[in-house]
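BUG: 3D viewer hangs when loading the predicted structure for this chain

Environment: internal workstation, default settings.
Expected: structure renders.
Actual: progress bar stalls at 90%.

Input used:
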Amino acid sequence: MIESFNVPKNDVAKWAGITSAVFSTSQAATGILWGRASDRYGRKPVILTAMTCVMSSGLLFGFSRNLVMAIIARSCAGASNGNVGILRTVVAEMVPHKELQPKAFSVMPLVWTIGSIFGPGFGGALANPSKKYPHLFRSDFFRTFPYALPNIVASLFFLGGWIAGFFFLKETLETKKDHEDVGRRLGKLVLRPFTRKAKEPKSPIDQEQASPLLKHSNFSSTSTIASRSNVPSATKSAASDAPPYRDVRIYFRKNAFPSADLLPKVFTKQSNINLLAYSLLALHSVAYDSLLPIFMHYPRQKDRASNPEVHLPFKFSGGFGIDSDRIGLLFILYGILGMFIQFLAFPPLARHFGVLNCFKLVTLTFPPIYVLTPFTALLPTPGLQQIFVFVIMFFKCWSAIFAFPCTIILLTNSAKSLMVLGTLNGVATSTSAMGRAVGPGVAGWMFTVGVSRGWVILPWWVLALFAAAGAVPVWWIVEMDGPGTSSGRDSSDGEDETSPLLNERSRIERYS
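Structure tokens produced before the viewer hung:
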């Protein structure tokens, strides 16, 4: 697309990198704002608003007639892409139980992987349709806007997601979840002809649980619940000492956005360590994925044995010299492999060994993966090169698929309060976007410098240093119990006065 703007071929890669960096930079600049907005106005309206903005930006990008317009469109798309952090917040609020978090937090990366596999294929097939399919697309419209069709199709997917969210997505923000949702009411009307309401008789225990909460609005009614034999005594005492249940939502509304206390609640010690680890992970992992196809496509170095500038095993240059079709096939297999690891391997292993232990282990595998990658170019045949690099890609895929959900779960559980969870995930979106913007740029520049001086290992070993630096803060991470729990509170940052209320709300929902 950039080449169609009459950009010289030698500058296409540069401007493609700038366009990608603009997207990530804009996302970094607005991620916190989207998170704070979701903490104040609710998750659902902010998600729908962001989806509308991204959809509009995609259409603007497809109808771009020059490079400046395309860059502006990508900048708007990045600035609108605040949903990543908010959706993580929604998942965290829907799935508060730690034993279920690995499976819940693996769904979003799985969907992302599916999109990464099929999205580029659909985009490439639908781009410039008047040239590829002249018998179907004869209109001058597609000649004037050759890249409009893939963006129109992508916008239709966004529209489908928006409609599903409007009709069926539940609000999870504590201060807004009990408000009337017109969209969900309409959704129930739409589904009513297709659903059958099952009538189940209430057991005496169910009636006992429901009756006090319906008739009374005081936590004293929870004494029936707390008095059961299966409820711990600590829960009983906490329930008896808690404030009236009717005051919970009032309390949240009055304290939902304490501007003076916001930063200490967001930037706790554990949250800061998790943010640092997450940013460095995004930097080196995304940089590796962007550099690998360039390395594979780079021409092979000939006559290494007779070349005086080559000093094996470290000083050499050259890549695989394979075409884009073969590279695309390897990355499709890479994505399919990632889908199976994401959904079948990660949840049970993370539950068995623990999220933090898995994170510590995989962070130690990144540096050797990066160090070994360039040496695959020294193998004698293209077949061996591709086999061994795919083995390395497998370990990289395994490590990245474990690392990202683990760090997201640990970051979410490090939140001091549910009131700032959206803001914290917004900060994480911003910091990781900065890593994604810096990493590929640094890696590309180091690759250019390295091959020009005969040291193709240079960018890979620099990434290994970043990966080693990213593994250091992981050993200072403490696995917390999640926002609103006493053990999930960072003792070095003082008391969180909202935690008892959150504990009581969770206990009521758990035992009622």
